[in-house]
Input
Amino acid sequence: MSSLIVGTDGLSRPSWAAQDPLMRDYYDTEWGMPIRDEQGLFERVSLEAFQSGLSWATILRKRDSFRAAFSQFDPELVAKFTDADIERLMEDAGIVRNKRKILATINNAKATLQLREKGGLVEFVWGFKPIDTPQPETLEEIPTQSPESVALSKALKKEGFSFVGPTTMFALMEAIGIVDTHLVGSHRRGSSGVWA
Output
């Protein structure tokens, strides 16, 4: 059975992207497109960490608030956050107020700056691009992690990052185009230009 739904516009999307206009727009314009700038990638790493245990729709609805709260995810600014900033964030109803995830974001900003000495976050993460990408026809066929996401998770932890488990890193790899898990038959399959 296909996991694709044909919308009123005639385009095929997975069920998770077919109903909610916000999720549909995200799917149609952002998800799976390459992110190759440090700030953009740091934002995605941060938001994937906040998403852990929650739905992506929840994070997406709060994304503007997250950006405002975390200085547009500029790692140089976030790395300088103080105890006062942590208190401010814990009072901010516009974001997910999880102290461990807030501390991880600040910690990961510092680790991002350190990684510049080894070529930078973008080169580091994209270095885990696999030789090929899944060809799922149903949502059930989409893996939740891969040997590359396990390796990326371990490598980032070694560099001082936290909240970067293998499943979270696979979601990151999907979101930024390192793997293409758009369902075969989706109007977005192959749209990243990374995979033919």
About this structure: The domain at 4-175 is CATH 1.10.340.30 (Endonuclease III; domain 1).
